[in-house]
């Protein structure tokens, strides 16, 4: 969706980019530099080393797709010349690329500008003459609102396009009613329509080369926007994961990777009533002030009234360097002085807690069974990283009770920093190879865990789904390779076995991109690329029937198996370092464990029997949560406050708990009568 996000994480990103992205000049690109930037990316790419006519043909199509993914601007006859380029035309486009000539993209951009002007005119007609129709009570939200992709055709004629635009407005209003309530929307019709137009214009203005006020931006910035759109189209056709970013997108990715940002710590929503505080970030300036409450409406920033400002402009006004002050005027209905409050907040570094680690547990026999959900692999300042958070969660759970079984929940974990995957895997093993990266020149690099401390050694399940990807697949497959954990979940994971190099977290990068530079393999020599990590015991997630995964993406990279590295030959270790490895590393190298693998036939049979008896409830769970994965609301900051039962509503977790109990029982039988 191109609409503004109401989630905490996306909001914090948008409202705090000034300190890191104050210098937009850092990522400014001229048209004449496009070829140079692409060469930077191609020099690192695992497969493609040059642009060719096929890439240019696809890039022209991508340029249209990235502007009009929902098919509510352009007509089929307008896109046909660009969607179906002949070989000769593609070759001509390529020849022009070699000469830094992007005039065809400029012509296409002119058509896009014309379609925007047409859309704005039609929207105005609907809002002025058919407003009552737009807000009819019977207008319900459709599940297929805003289809995307090549299978979704463009409008054949202007009549059909008019109907699509009108329906888009109606569906937006229906979504606002569902989100905020019918009364709120019906009492604020004018502002609801303003919200819709602001959301549309945020993207439109980039192609129209104007600011939020409709004023033309400087020529250099106009050129930069066109260059960015062209670079996005070109980069996206090198492979499924190579991308070029604008400053806002880059900062979004940076915060996700580092779990920290500069700001005032407000979570905001744009509602029909105005800009509302929906939450306060823990330990942020807003919370520490003690003066701001959830549901306060922000009416002014630095004495500037917000009545006519877009949501994006409000976020921009909240930005600023660390240590600077911003004055907020807020309205709190129902209080004295008409509820008007003035607060001065000093911007500061803030750690992101959402999307890090959640824990829950339940008692079992003389101890507990616990779940640790890790949502990404991140690494930021002040020792904020996945390794420390998972480690701390395990330590705190052990203080609650004897930790008899553990679920590492990676169902919605789509990856992050490679080294954090190595370190998290290392929490459950002695020393040894975790992952091997292989690059286009044949070079291999071994990533090892060299810390022999194992923070948990008992029955371990890694819970996965089709969304489990990249660094999460490294941890899953590596621990499966060593026999340290059983994989439970969807039949297979996402299947992303490629490595991307990125400039996002590098200070002073002139261009912001990520590019696929190689493939990775775990200690068994297998890569999850395309096929994913196979589950030892299949317990479907709500995503089990979805076509999700690398195999469904265009331009994927192939990966063949390499030699296993269980017996580490130290082939990449410098001769001067080998004595250290031979003395401190090799004697404690992790060996394959067979105890859990040997249990799989029994565990599988028991699980299938339980699920067969619970088919009705499990199918209801899948349907109710289709497309989502339930997440605990409890943070590992205080696991003692968690619910006694970790599987009340999430039947997939519930079955994982049952499998853990079987593992514990079978393990105890193995040691009955064993000599002490």
Q: How would you characterize the overall build of this protein?
A:
This protein is α+β, with helices and mostly antiparallel strands and 676 residues long. Helices cover 40% and strands 16% of the residues. The chain contains 22 helices and 19 strands. The strands form 4 sheets. Strands 3, 4, 5, 6, 7 and 8 form a 6-stranded antiparallel beta sheet that branches. A 6-stranded mixed beta sheet has the order 10-11-12-15-16-19, with helices on both faces. Strands 1, 13, 14, 17 and 18 form a 5-stranded antiparallel beta sheet that branches. Strand 15 (460-464), helix 18 and strand 16 form a beta-alpha-beta unit. The termini are far apart.
């Amino acid at each position: 969706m191109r609409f503004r996000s109401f989630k905490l994480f996306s909001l914090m990103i948008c409202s705090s980019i000034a300190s890191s992205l104050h210098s937009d000049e850092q990522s400014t690109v001229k048209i004449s530099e496009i070829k140079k930037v692409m060469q930077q990316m191609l020099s690192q790419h695992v497969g493609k080393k040059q642009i060719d006519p096929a890439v240019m043909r696809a890039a022209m199509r991508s340029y249209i797709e990235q502007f009009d993914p929902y098919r509510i601007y352009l007509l089929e006859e307008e896109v046909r010349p660009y969607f179906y380029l002949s070989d000769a035309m593609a070759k001509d486009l390529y020849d022009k690329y070699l000469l830094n000539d992007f005039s065809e993209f400029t012509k296409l951009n002119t058509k896009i500008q014309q379609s925007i002007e047409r859309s704005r005119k039609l929207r105005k007609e609907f809002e002025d003459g058919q407003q009552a129709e737009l807000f009819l009570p019977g207008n319900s939200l459709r599940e297929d609102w805003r289809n995307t992709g090549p299978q979704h055709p463009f409008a054949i004629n202007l009549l059909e396009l008019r109907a699509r635009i009108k329906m888009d407005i109606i569906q937006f209003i229906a979504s606002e009613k569902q989100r905020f309530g019918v009364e709120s929307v019906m009492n604020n019709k004018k502002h609801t329509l303003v919200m819709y137009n602001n959301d549309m214009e945020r993207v439109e203005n980039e192609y129209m080369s104007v600011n939020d006020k409709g004023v033309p931006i400087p020529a250099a910035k106009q050129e930069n926007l066109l260059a960015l759109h062209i670079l996005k189209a070109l980069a996206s056709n090198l492979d499924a994961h190579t991308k070029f970013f604008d400053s806002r997108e880059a900062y979004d990715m940076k915060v996700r990777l580092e779990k920290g940002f500069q700001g005032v710590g407000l979570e905001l929503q744009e509602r029909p009533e105005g800009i509302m505080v929906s939450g306060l970030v823990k330990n942020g300036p807003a919370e520490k002030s003690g003066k701001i409450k959830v549901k306060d409406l922000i009416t002014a920033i630095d004495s500037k009234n917000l009545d006519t400002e877009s949501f994006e402009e409000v976020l921009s006004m909240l930005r600023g360097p660390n240590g600077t002050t911003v004055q907020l005027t807020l309205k709190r209905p129902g209080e004295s002085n008409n509820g008007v409050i003035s607060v001065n907040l000093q911007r500061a570094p803030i750690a992101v807690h959402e999307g890090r680690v959640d824990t829950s547990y339940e008692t079992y026999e003389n101890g507990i069974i616990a779940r640790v959900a890790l949502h990404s692999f991140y690494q930021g300042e002040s020792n904020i990283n996945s390794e420390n958070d998972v480690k701390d969660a395990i330590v705190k759970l052990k203080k609650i009770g004897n930790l008899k079984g553990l679920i590492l929940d990676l169902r919605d974990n789509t990856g992050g920093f490679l080294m954090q995957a190595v370190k998290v895997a290392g929490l459950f093993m002695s020393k040894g190879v975790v992952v091997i990266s292989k690059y286009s020149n044949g070079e291999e690099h071994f990533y090892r865990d060299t810390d022999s401390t194992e923070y948990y050694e008992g029955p371990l399940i890694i819970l996965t789904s089709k969304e489990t990807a990249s660094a999460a697949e490294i941890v899953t497959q590596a621990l499966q390779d060593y026999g340290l954990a059983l994989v439970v979940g969807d039949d297979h994971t996402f299947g992303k076995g490629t490595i991307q190099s990125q400039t996002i977290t590098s200070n002073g990068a002139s261009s912001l991109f990520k590019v696929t530079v190689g493939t990775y393999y775990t200690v068994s020599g297998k890569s999850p690329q395309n096929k994913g990590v196979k589950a030892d015991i299949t317990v479907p997630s709500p995503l089990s029937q979805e076509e999700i995964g690398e195999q469904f993406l265009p331009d994927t990279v192939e990966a063949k198996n390499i030699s296993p590295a269980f017996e580490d030959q130290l082939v990449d270790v410098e001769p001067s370092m080998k004595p250290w490895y031979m003395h401190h590393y090799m004697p404690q190298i992790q060996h394959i464990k067979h105890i859990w693998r040997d249990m799989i036939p029994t565990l599988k049979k028991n699980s299938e029997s339980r699920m067969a008896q619970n088919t009705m409830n499990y199918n209801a769970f899948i349907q109710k949560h289709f497309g989502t994965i339930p997440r605990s609301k409890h943070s590992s900051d205080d696991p003692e406050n968690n619910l006694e039962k970790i599987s009340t509503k999430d039947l997939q977790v519930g079955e994982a708990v049952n499998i853990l109990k079987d593992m514990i029982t079978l393990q105890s039988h193995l040691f009955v009568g064993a000599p002490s």
